[in-house]
Amino acid sequence: MSDTEPLPDAEVTVRWIVTGRVQGVSFRYFTQRAARALDLRGWVKNLADGSVEARVSGPRSRVEELREQVKQGPRLSRVDGVSEESIDSAAADVREGEFEIRF
Q1: Does residue 49 sit within a domain?
Q2: CB atoms closer than 10 angstroms to residue 40
């Protein structure tokens, strides 16, 4: 057994589409607060079809932690699903050191 330190979390960038009752219930603000607490970068916005899109960059374990929180959502929300795809960080349009709400 090796006594070397484990490699740090790999940096990942993902795109989520969250469906359910996720608009008009402070879902974007909930996501922003949770992402900032985890020191993640990205953005979240409402889509015309009633879903919410988020693009998130950071260490894999913290992105997964945020996903679990997003699946629960704020008190008045109901999350029916979170679809995820890995995307190139350049295509994510993520600003360094920021997690913002987009309109």
Answers
A1: yes
A2: 22
| Given 15, 21, 33, 46, the catalytic residue | 46
Partners of residue 11 on adjacent β-strands? 59
Task: Work out how many domains the chain is built from and give that number.
Answer: 1
With 0.85 as the threshold, say if the pTM is over it. Answer: yes
Question: Considering the domain boundaries, does residue 74 fall inside one?
Answer: yes
Active site residue 33: no
Q: Which of 28, 41, 55, 62 is catalytic?
A: 28
Q: Which residues constitute the domain of residue 41?
A: 11-102
Show contacts of 78-81: CB within 8 Å, 24+ apart. Answer: 78/20, 78/21, 78/22, 79/18, 79/19, 79/20, 79/22, 80/19, 80/20, 81/18, 81/19, 81/20
- pLDDT at residue 101 in the model: 98
Asked if residues 9 and 66 have their Cβ atoms less than 8 Å apart, the reply is no
Q: Is 28 a catalytic residue?
A: yes
